[in-house]
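ARCHIVE CARD
Drawer: 12
Card no.: 0347
Subject: one protein chain, sequence and derived structure
Cross-reference: see card 0346
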Amino acid sequence: MFNSEALEVGIGMAFLFLLMSLICTGVKEWIEGIFKWRAMDLERALRTLLDDEHGQLTAHLLSHPLISSLYRGSYDPSKLTSSVVGGHLVGVANAKHMALRARRNLPSYIPAGHFAKALIDLVARGPANVDSEHAPHAPFDIAQLRERAAALNSPFLRRAVLSAIDHCNGDLQQLTVNLQSWFDGSMDRASGWYKRRTQTVLFVLGIGAAAVLNVDALYVMGRLTADKAFRDAVVSAAAKAEAPAASVAGSAPDALAVARKARTELENIGMPMGWRKTDRATFGIAGVQLCNVEDARECNDSGYSYLRMVLGWLVTAFAVMLGSPFWFDILNKFMVIRSTVKPREKSREEGSEDRADSASKDAVAVLTPAPTATAALQAAQSVNPPTTPEPTPPLESPTPLQAFVPHQWRDGFVNSKQVPL
């Protein structure tokens, strides 16, 4: 069971990792705004879903009015390229991806319903940019849709669409639901690509931020354990933490603003981090964990100290990989545990005071002499006086107790071991 000190240390560490995650996530979102990785993953997932390596069918789908209204610009499949760096970014060697300039205006999200309806219309009527007098404009049924789906060039896409038609029982609405499920499954795969890349980027940013700001998780944990005033200040600030999901997910300037706010919060609570200038260090500066708290000139920059400092940076970087939502949930759980433990401790103290008060009242009641029978009778008569006076019956005298005589035994009994006085 956590005691109060261990629980507060856990709250302080979770709050530290939350703020560091917010800093790195804000920088990551700013980088995302430059490289448009979400749009790149979505475009690649669409080409994989449609079995369209060169992007011709994907271009027809993205140019459909139901989807083209979701983004600015146009999709040009001739901009697809493959490179060593791009292959590592998408997670597959020699995989084609849209060039940076060409994907800046591509959509980062497509609703499943829009995709399903656009695909059905594309299969039934052809590309939206083809204006032909032979293009059908009348409502189509499942039989016509099956006939046109059987003429698709890709065997993979043809089998997927025909399978969705087979399981719709002639209902276009059910066909839309089937295609939506197919699309959602592919988007889960694209989300996996993005999450793996995000974890890698967060780790790199975490180790960089920990080194630049000198945030040593092991040193901070030691300070939280030893310094009660610092621990109380961190716990008080952690109680005011806000959910990061809505604030981080936004434009690049907003993400950087969140990162700056988290950085300022670290400074305001006096988090032991940063560097100090000193003449006794090898490079002229030393981390705060290597210097004396009272005298900054006394620093120890031995190899073991730097190794321990780098280990603390790695702990911070691995914690940042988990993301700010994870640490916000952990912090909330610690706060809930703390709020349930404190009232119980307080109720025990109040209970002891109540018991002490009741005990003192009982002692006063014992020391206070009880009223006599005559006084009680007089009090009752004063409240309800009798109509006719009645003589008060005399109180019977109690039977006198026999006097106690020590060392006196009953008749006929003698204690042979009795010690004479």
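Annotation on reverse: The longest strand covers residues 275-277. The two ends are 63 Å apart (CA to CA).
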